[in-house]
Amino acid sequence: MKNRLKVLRAERDWTQAQLASALGVSRQTINAIEKGKFDPSLPLAFKAARLFNLAIEEIFNDEVEAL
Amino acid sequence: MTKLDCENSSYQTKNNANTIILRNWTFAWVITMAIAAFSPKFIWDFNTALTIAAVLINLAVGFKMLVANRDYLRGLDEMQRTILLEAMALALGVGLVVGLSYELLEDIKLITYQPEIPHIVFLMVITYGLAVVSGHRKYQ
Asked: Is residue A17 part of a domain?
């Protein structure tokens, strides 16, 4: 699953650790999600959407990242 | 940005607290296990009442350790929990499959010594450790 988490975080000048703190997860988890290696659960995706004031589909889409 | 300050991360704080609680109960369990294993012979000369008490205390502390481990897992975020649960599943599977085959070896006379539970526990611990490392590398 592709996502715009890294872009959105960079636009706000947040570090991975700061975003992790806001979402209540570890920095490693944010890193894995940004790299597309781990797909977040629906509750975590909703939490991210609320944090960025966006709809879930504006952050995540199910298009598989090209290798 | 204060809200996002990682130093005030409730996740990290909760995780650290759960880790300390789990470490303390694990340490207590090891101590009570040692007391139950060695004290009957070296301290109270196999006094039945004291031995039963030591075993019961060991079981009770072991139960508290399991509860602490459950709380630790519940406190992890979803990726960390996935890594640990997958590692636990693999360790349990390896322990079961290899353990039964290992026990069979003596029954069918392929080994001459008695298979010991600590051998399987050691294998499970090694499997668990490798699976945790592998899980973290997978999501890096």
From this structure: yes
Rounded Cα–Cα distance for residues B33 and B134 (Å): 30
Residue A61 pairs with which residues in a beta bridge? A2
Closest Cα of chain B to A7: distance in Å? 17
Q: How confident is the model at residue A63 (pLDDT cuts 50, 70, 90)?
A: confident
Work out how many domains chain A is built from and give that number. Answer: 1
Question: What was the ipTM of the complex prediction?
Answer: 0.88
> In this structure, is residue A64 part of a structural domain?
no
Supply the pLDDT for residue A66.
54
The residue extents of the domains of chain B are: 6-76, 77-140
Residue among B1, B3, B5, B6 with most chain A CBs within 10 A, to mutate: B6
Closest to B13 (Cα-Cα) out of A33, A44, A26, A14:
A26
Q: Other C-beta atoms within 10 Å of B114: how many?
A: 7
